Hints:
alpha/beta
Amino acid sequence: MQIKIENLSxxxxxxxxxxKTALKDISFTVNEGDTMGIVGATGSGKSTLSRHLNAxxxxxxxRIMLGDADLSQRKVDLKAVRKKVxxxxxxxxxxxxxxxVRKDVAFGPMNFGINDAEASAAAAEALxxxxxxxxxxxxxxxxxxxxxxxRRVAIAGVIASKPEVLVLDEPTAGLxxxxxxxxxxxxxxxxxxxxxxxxxxxxxMDEIAEYCNRVAVLDEGRLIADTxxxxxxxxSDVVDNTELDYPHTVKIKRKLAKRGFVVDSPALNxxxxxxxxxxxxxx
Length: 283
C-alpha cells in the first residue's frame, strides 16, 4: 500500500492570536516496503505530519492517499484507516490503560470488531512477537512490569490488529543503548512478517542511518529533502545547514578524511565503517 502526500499544509489555532503554521505544502510518497525516517529539529512539524497518517489530525489543506483511500474526504472510514496504520507514540508505555496485559493488548482487535476469543488469540500472538509469553504476563497489571516490558506490551497492543503500516514517534526515547537496539531489531522482525511499511520519527541520526532506506527532512514545516541516508549524510549539505547532526560513524569517517585517511564507505553503521577502514588498510 502506497502513501501519497500531496501539498499538505496545517495551521494550529487558525485566525487566533495563537496561530502557528506547522506544515507548509508538503509532498512526497512512501512506497510499500519503505522504512522511512522523518527527521528535523524540534518544532519542524514531524509529529504533526505523522499524526495525519492515521487521521488523528484531520486534513485542512492538501491530500493524503492511503492506498485507494483519500483521507482529505469529509467522510473517511476511520476504523479502516487505523486498522491499516498503527501508531506508536513517544513513551508508548503511557498508552497502557487496562488492568491486565491481556485486556490491554486485546483492546485494539476488539475495537475493530473481533470477538473475544479471536482478540485473545491475536493478543497472544502479538505478545509472542515482542518476546513476551501471555501465560506469564497476561493476567498481570501492565504497571507491574519493568519499563522495557511495558514498552513491549504497548507495541504488542498496536500490532495485535496487524497493521500494514507502522508509524513510530521516537520509539527508543528514554531507553539505554541495549534497549534501543532491542526495539529497533523488533521493528525489523515485524517488517519481515505482516508489517509492510515503517515510518520512524526520530532525533537519533544513528537509528535513521542504520534502519531506514529513505529520509524526509523537515525544517520549519517545509520538506527540504527526500533522499536516502547515504544521500543525506554523505552527499548533501543539509545537515550542515540545519540543526541535525551526523551519525557517530559518519562523524568518525569525516574526521579520518580531514587527516588524510579517506574511507570508501557510506559508514552508516559500525559494520560499514569497519569494512571501509579495513579495506583502506589493506591497500
